[in-house]
Design a protein that fits this description.
Blueprint: H1 30-63, H2 68-93, H3 102-117
Helix pairs in contact: 1-2
């Protein structure tokens, strides 16, 4: 009787991450990992960009200082975008890379050679 083991847990790349699925080894399902990381990055980018820009706009409107706080909010948003992209790249680099069999490698090489000949 073959025993199945639970997926290996790896530490989450995000400090304080409470997602129960964070760090699960999805080596066999790369498209699910890609979609998960893309969605995670999307909501992080939305918050990081929208909050400072709208906040700066509202402060400018309240104190009649346009466009000073909006520009400051935009600069903070760009710094936040850089941090989100850096965290996502760091998380992607910690994922395991699936190993190809020699037959798969030969099939890929043959496909590239056929494309080069066309």
């Amino acid at each position: 009787m073959k025993q199945t083991t639970a997926p290996k847990k790896t530490p989450s790349p995000y400090p304080g991450d409470t997602n129960p699925h964070a760090g699960v080894d999805h080596a066999g399902n790369t498209s699910a990992v890609f979609v998960s990381m893309a969605l995670d990055m999307s909501w992080r980018l939305a918050i990081v960009v929208i909050a400072p820009v709208i906040g700066g706009f509202e402060i400018d409107k309240h104190f009649n200082t346009a466009p000073a706080w909006t520009i400051i909010g935009f600069v903070l948003a760009m710094i936040g975008v850089g941090l989100v992209l850096w965290q996502t790249l760091r998380a992607a680099n910690q994922l395991p890379v699936p190993k190809l069999s020699s037959a798969q490698k030969k099939a890929i090489q043959k496909q590239y050679e056929e494309e080069d000949n066309d």
